[in-house]
Sequence to fold (461 residues):
Amino acid sequence: MRFPITSFVVIAVLAAAPVVGRAADLPCAKCDAAKTAPPEMVKKSFFVADLLAPIPSHFLLDVMQAGAITSSAPSNVSDPAVDAKKLIKLVVGMVQPSTWNYLGGDGEINFYEMSNCLIVKNTPEVVAEVTGLLEALRRLRLGSIAFECRLIHAPVGYREANLWTKNADPADPTVALLKEEQVSKLMMATQQSKDMSTMQLPKVTLFNNQTSTVGMFDSVTKTFLTGLEPTPKNANGSSTNLPTPKFESVTFGSAFQFGGEISADAKSVKMTFKMKATELDGPVALMPVTHMITPVFEGGSQGVPVPFTQFVQQPTIVRRTVDRTVTLTDGGTVAIPLGKHIPLPEANEAPITLRARLFRKVAKPVEQESIALVTVRVIPPEPEDTKPAAGVVRAAGTAPKAKAPAPSCPARSPAAEHVVAYRKACIEGRTQDAMKAAMLALAADPKCFADETPSCCAGEE
Fold:
């Protein structure tokens, strides 16, 4: 049922226009507040120790010198905190720089040195991009390298020695590249022979281009009296040279250093093997050193010089160094000779009887050869789990809230067009145009001014 438009109706509509306009604008304020609300922030930790610069082993081969083991840290150790700053600079510069607090944003990124982790606080979209960037960097590391080393001690000229001549490396004839079945045959022969022995070193896993050292040393540093040096000394107005003992401290043992570089196709490894050993060759001989000492009595009188004999130790210390660089396929084994030596005779605790002295068999010590079997394996990098439930923690004060669905704007009707024109004319002070638009709107829909549709949905420009 249609009502005729009268001047009273138009005047009533004009009077109510400001109130209706303010009521209609209230939902739009809610829409603007939703748009300007701070974004939801999440936290996630990333383990980045493998992305930082490789940290060399704290024990290097140069500590195997004459003297005690040095406890000072090597000068080429890199600082993880310094390397982490470079990584943070890369992440901030590559992933939406304007969202980080360095450039006025709300995002934060920090390095926790105790666990070598990056703690990232930002929107879920930025955290996902950081995850992708770190995974891309991790794929460039080409994984890790596992080194497995076994030491074999065997008599010189044993029957399995022909493996060296048949499988010698053309680049370095002193080493041999062995297949898996040949390694199994050699290990089986070692277990079956009483003259051969084997020892397994701890397995070492390193990042690409990283080095590490495994050492085997005596628990006590041995000190030898290797000589006497004359020291001038004044006594009772006369100058004499007194013999001063000269000592030398030696640490016996071996150090093995491993390092590797993975090829671009991750199918071969350029392995670097270094060994430095310090051994005592044979029993320590004693050499007598005789000096003439002139006794001085009370009162300053001197007596007849008398001989004084001291025994000086003469140890034969053997220092051996091996340095090899070999290219191996994934899972390949190389046999590296470490040198030859004659084992020391075992000391007998019980005294030898007279009969045993007359009829005993004197066995000559057999010269032994040491070989290192080094096997390398490439460990491919494992992709990091990117599920939010594993490492994502919501930031404090940003508890998850159910997002209200955005208000849907209905299609603009002819009455809504006239209502928009009427409100615009009221704002600009054009009374005649406002009255005309109101009459057209009421003619199209008498309830158009009673509708609480937001102005943005009504087509406000």
About this structure: The chain has three domains: 7-38+412-444, 42-141+383-394, 145-344+359-379. The CA atoms of residues 192 and 231 lie 59 Å apart.
